[in-house]
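Priority: low. Protein: IQCH-like ATP-grasp domain-containing protein. Input follows.
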Amino acid sequence: MAHHATPVNSELYPTWDKFLQDFLKRGGVIEACPPSDSVTALSVDVLIEPTGETTVLSMGDQIHAASPFRCWGFSVPQTSVDPSVLCTATEAVSNACKLRGIVGYFSIDFVTFIDPKSLEQVVWAVDLKLRYSDSMAMTKLMLYVSGGDFQSALSAFVVPVKRNERKAEGDGEGKQWRRKSRRRILIVSPFSAPDCCTVT
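Result:
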């Protein structure tokens, strides 16, 4: 293990031995790293109602800065994985939670990468947080401020945008101008449909 493990926080744990000392005293997490140089992380926020109904509330790509293992923020909606694949994986984890009597808010972290042998995209679930997450709080704030709507099946975030249009009614000096607002912006994953990223 000492030859393969790399502590995430090299300032706190410069060597494996330093990490191992604290790990044996307090516990910790040892996690497999995907066999790829290009790995994308994303988070999905879910709510399981007491009735058993499951709702996907948010999907976002993680933004990393100092370290590929430290999340700095989120980009919503996610554009890394086909929404149907991500929804299927999320449903599997949600069903496992329901079998264990888990209800309420929780967050699932996934990583996706291209398998070097099959050259196919792979999606791994790597973390489960049984709490109301920061990403959920930020999504709720974003929805409130923008008045938008998140559509998990399409991995789409639809935001209404006002556009003033003046339409003439009547002739000559009696013309009246009526203002009309009818603009929407659709921000979606490219997996949804080839012509969805449009402004009308």
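Confidence is low (pLDDT under 50) at residues 179-200. Residues 11 and 77 are 33 Å apart (CA to CA).
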